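Read as amino acids, tokens; as here:

___
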Amino acid sequence: MSPPQHAAPASRLRFEPASSGRPGFLLRCVRGCALGLLLTVLLALAAPLSAGEIPPTGARSGVDIARVAAAAWAGDATLIYLENDESLDGQGASPRWGYLFYSPAQDKARAYSVRAGKIVAAEDLPMKFQAPPVAAEWIDSGRALEVAEREVGRAFRKEHRATLGTMLLVRGAFQNDDATTWTLIYNAPHEAPLFVIVDAIEGRVRRTWRG
């Protein structure tokens, strides 16, 4: 599918690299991605475990415990981003999810990685963020995947032997658009990945593109 015809989006999520690159988070910006924001926040603080050891769960499963920890860190901390920290299954579940919180008062961001109902890693992000909090209510990762699969994902997987690699939730991904959205990224051998943007409130596909 060809990219939609629209003005280049501007990210509301801004960051400045710190002087030292500590291990922990890997931040990757997507070349040509209409999101115009960071693609992945991955924690690597804890020793990796086999995904089969822990049953995968939806993204909402770790929100509460991460939010409690974030509130202890900063009273004004709000959730601005989340992403799967381990591989996804066919129901949009993962054994481990990462949650990024931002404190306007401290002008700092801190992330928590949750596995099996426990925080297995936590670290201050070595970058400065300015980002809006995601909406209070949003569909879980499983529902977002259902929507994406029905519209374009299933056909893309079958045609190109693709797999779902990433699901991330963020608000304000596009210029003049305040929506909280899921971004699903399908990867295929020797093919450009498929990006599917799902409205996390309305539960519908908003945009798709290859790149």
Q: What stands out?
A: The radius of gyration is 16 Å. The longest strand covers residues 163-171.
